[in-house]
Amino acid sequence: MGIAPLFAGIPGGPEMLVILLIAVLLFGANKIPRLARSVGESMGEFKKGRQELETEIEVESDVVKSRGTRDADANPTREARE
How many domains does the chain have? Predict the structure, then answer.
């Protein structure tokens, strides 16, 4: 008989009700929709920024790969020259 972990995954129904109750007490019922909207917008901006960064990294990676291929063609290795 082991000890249950303190945080065992995603909260279920009763836990979500407690979290919702705390949120209502902290922010007030009329502010929760605005808070949820701003969190959603922030997540959208984060995803957009992450996608732009990934695209930029891919482009730079392609440039480096194409330079590496040209450098290898211009400067063959010792084994290729022999």
Answer: 1
Residues 6+ apart with CB under 8 A from 14: none
Read off the pTM. Answer: 0.49
Largest Cα–Cα separation, the chain: 79
Q: What is the H or E stretch that residue 32 is in?
A: helix 32-74
**Residue at 66: amino acid letter:** S
> Looking at the domain assignment, is residue 33 inside a domain?
yes
Q: Which domain holds residue 51?
A: 27-69
Q: Is 8 helix (H, G, I), strand (E, B) or coil?
A: coil
CB 35 within 8 A of CB 27: yes
User: How far does Cα 30 stand from its chain's mean position?
Assistant: 30
> pLDDT tens across 39-58, in order?
899 999 999 999 999 999 99
